[in-house]
Amino acid sequence: MTSLAIGANDAKTLPDYAPIPRSALGPALNDQGYYVGRVERNLYWVTDGVYQSAFLTTNDGVVLFDAPPTIGANLRRAVDEIAAANGVTNRVTHLVYSHHHADHGGAASLSDGDVVRIGHEETRRLLLRDNSPARPAPDVTFADRYTLECLADLILPTIVRTKFANGNALGSLARRSILIAARHRLVLSAAYLDNPH
């Protein structure tokens, strides 16, 4: 068996590598530790430099996609900031779970009590099993697809079963080339061609 250990004398023979491109480091965070940016029109994304969330603002309320605990209260700050800038309500009316894992929904309980939580039926089953007060189970579930009408936008979570987590959901926005995904080996939002909506 060959050893993979490298001695001190071998270090100078290691190849040089190109530096990490600036774009790979992500956006600069504000003083409160988050970045919020527009994806398009009234769809925004929030990051703490590691985890991401997205939200859709409407005159009737805000639809939040996932609530990572590392972003936590900064989700509220980001929604407040964007809503104030655009003159729309900052009231979160819906939260869509991408799946049941705590790193994507651990701040779901920070939303007001009248938030409608939406998730796949398997996500509900797993959240009830986990019994975490930080991740209340979805009020509305679906097996294959669910349509949430928000003014001119339709959010259509569609089940995608993966080995990673049963109950994963993809969301698409009608009349837009936007796909919202979590841990599907895709970026948070990616334009795609031939959007059927």
Explain what you see:
The protein is of the alpha+beta class. The chain has one domain (29-190): 4-Layer Sandwich (Metallo-beta-lactamase, Chain A). 14% of the residues lie in helices and 25% in strands. It contains 3 helices and 13 strands. The protein has helices at 73-86, 102-105, 121-130; strands at 35-40, 43-47, 52-57, 62-65, 92-96, 116-120, 140-142, 148-150, 153-155, 158-159, 169-172, 179-180, 189-190. The protein has a 7-stranded mixed β-sheet. The protein has a 4-stranded antiparallel β-sheet with strand order 10-11-12-13, with no helix packed on it. The chain has a two-stranded antiparallel ribbon with strand order 8-9. The termini are far apart. The model is unreliable at 156-165 and 181-197 (pLDDT under 50).
Structural class: alpha+beta
Biggest sheet character: 7 strands, mixed
- Stated plainly, the CATH topology is called Metallo-beta-lactamase, Chain A
* Mean pLDDT metric: 75
Top keywords for this entry?
25% strand; four-stranded antiparallel beta sheet; 3 helices; disordered C terminus; Metallo-beta-lactamase, Chain A; alpha+beta; 197 residues; seven-stranded mixed beta sheet
